[in-house]
Amino acid sequence: MTASIAFGVDIGGSGIKGAPVDLSTGELSAERVRIPTPKPSKPAAVAKVVAEVVDSFDLPKDVPVGITFPAIIVDGVARSAANVDDDWIGTDVEKLISKATGRQVFVCNDADAAGVAEAAFGAAKGVRGNVIVTTIGTGIGSAFINDGVLVPNTELGHLELDGHKAEHRIADSVREREDLSWERWAKRLSKYYQHVEFLFSPSLFVVGGGVSKKHAKWMPQVECETKMVPAALQNNAGIVGAAHLAAKHRS
Ligand code: BGC
Predict the structure, then answer these.
(1) CB 143 near ligand 1, within 6 Å
(2) Residue of the nearest CA to atom 5 in ligand 1?
(3) Full-model pTM
(4) For 225-235, what is each residue's pLDDT tens digit?
């Protein structure tokens, strides 16, 4: 039997957030705790803060704990570091955080967690075929879901666009830095999503990340064949998806 509560932690560039999640509804069962990400964000310092977040709650020892990390994660080990400290490459994140928290934790890519949350409880619930969830923030994350099942570590933010890494052209951080109008940014997004839809023939694009809250300003201007909707879980998608995956991993 799967647990009815699991704990999720979302490790981001500016904050480390955690909360218990009710796995039957995908809702947080207590208010989340957020502690700023240490600078520099070296592995030992981050692991310490994750332990602080987990210890802020009175959790039973056997509750599944899932953690998101913004890099490729294979068998608990970080295999890239696009927007995080290079020291993470090759780090067994699962081992490090299990030791720091005194609990066996499960670690996955941040966008994969958000995608799984959307498929289980949000905008991609019950959608058949290939669903591509992209998170637009400092970088671009992606989750590839086929008939509700995650194909992990797709890294579609690293596709090439206009001779650059796509995330270096269309991330929200780039929009802000280059002071792009919504129209100009949407043009770049159109090119990107048209390329992705040609490669994968998705039935749905779900777009998350902070800028998805302002979807009315730009989403109608993105030209592609595939239906595109904003993420439903917004800020908590990572926490919810990590908790959900940790419980599934355990069962
Ligand atoms: C990383 C991904 C991550 C995404 C969003 C990218 O730079 O390569 O692993 O999911 O940023 O944080």
Answers:
(1) no
(2) 141
(3) 0.97
(4) 999 999 999 88
